[in-house]
Every structure is written in structure tokens, then in C-alpha cells.
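Subject: catechol O-methyltransferase

B.,
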Amino acid sequence: MGTPWRKRKGIAGPGLPNLSCALVLQPRTQVGTMSPAIALAFLPLVVTLLVRYRHYFRLLVGTVLLRSLRDCLSGLRIEERAFSYVLTHALPGDPGHILTTLDHWSSHCEYLSHMGPVKGQILMRLVEEKAPACVLELGTYCGYSTLLIAQALPPGGRLLTVERDPRTAAVAEKLIRLAGFDEHMVELIVGSSEEVIPCLRTQYQLSRADLVLLIHRPRCYLRDLQLLEAHALLPAGGTVLADHVLFPGAPRFLQYAKSCGRYRCRLYHTGLPDFPAIKDGIAQLTYAGPG
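Prediction pasted inline below.
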């Protein structure tokens, strides 16, 4: 014979029901479920947001999700993969062809988050117009904007470019030398802008920067601009260019430049390379002097 079934005793007492029976008979409440009708009600809103912000969604997928996946699979960063492409497709000693190759790779392979040809034309035109004896670039990255400046410099011009990440700087150094620019013309400094700017006069013999390009982190633009002012590295009439002032944006930097009374400001409206629907801009500041 099988084991006889025994009824489990519940907790009971005077005036109290049997709790075991109450628990068995009580229906289980479902938690965290949503009615299909409610889900369908939100569907038009979700579709509208995806359509309206599809360019930002594509940018997010390309620059964060896919890039991280490729980094893990290849063991290389995006700028290292781009340089490998340049080595096999570009002409050494031809900075224009190297820049075109990077643009092609960014458009057809992986989005590089570089300055791009539209903004690049603005930068080159200003360098040619101003003919600066010395240019300071904060944020070398892969070296794209560095090559733009270097090929537009007047004879005897000098470019100092600062990159905080040693691994990224190593790639940029190779690209700059591949383009044919030596260390006398283009000097790459590895370090954070906050640490390098106070040392420019003593360690790198930079008494003034006729043109400054801010292209590193927009949240650091205001701090670095004030450091340049504090160390008297901006001459009267000098030019400061700042990229990405609208996306992701540098509102405090723009507010300071417009309100402090020491700059004349001009804004060039552009789009992101390969994402023209995402609006961005380059700010051009002309320094009037410390007074």
C-alpha cells in the first residue's frame, strides 16, 4: 500500500480561520504584466519617436553598440582600424588623398566621428585666410583635422596638437608622418589639455597661438579657453574655433564667449558627417584682448 495522505494542519485558533486553506484557495496575483490594449495604445507613440529621431538612433547604434562589438571582436579601436584601411588604400605623402580615404572609410565602413569634409572646408579656409604662424589644436583624435590644418599652413608655420589618450595619439602620429609632415612642422603632445596648456610657454616654446582649434571634449572648452587667457597665449586678433558647439553642445562656452565682451562670435551651422540631419555647428571667436 502507498503512504497514506495526511492533511496538513493550518494555523488556527479561537476566532482565526485555517490559514493554509486560505492560502491555497486565494488566487495568485500576476505582477508586472501589461494589458495588450495598453501596449497597443503606446505603439503609435513609439513609432513616431523612432521615425522622428531615427538619425540619432542610427548614430547611437553605430557609435556605441556596433563600435563596441567590433572593438571586442578585432581587439583594435576604431581609429586603429581606420589607419589599417588608410595604409592599404591611400597614397603616402599625399595628405589630401589620405583625408579622402578616411572620409570614404567613414561613409562606407564605420562612422569615424571625425570633422568631415564640410567642416574641414571651413577650417582650411580660415587657416588660409589667417595665415597663422602657430596653431594649437586641442584634441588630435585620429589626426584628420591635424592634416587639414597642416596642409593649409603658410611656409614656416607650426602646429602643436594635444591628445590625452596615448593609444589614440600613437595612431595619429603614424598618420601625420605618413602624410609627410615632420616633427618641426607638426608636434604631437600626449597629455590632458588642462595639464599641457600651463606648460606650453616654458616646455614647448609657444609664446602665442594665432589660431586655436577646440575639438576634444565640449564640456572642457570653457575651462581651456580661460586657461589660454590666464596664461596670455591668445594674442589680440587671434582666432579660436570650437567644433561640436551645438551637438553634443557647449552652452556654457558659448554663453561666456558672447557675454564676457572679449570676443566677436560667429557660428557656422553644419551637420554631422554622414548624418546631415543632425544639426551641429562650429563657433569662430575673434579675441579682442584682455581689456
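Residues 75 and 118 are 31 Å apart (CA to CA).

T.
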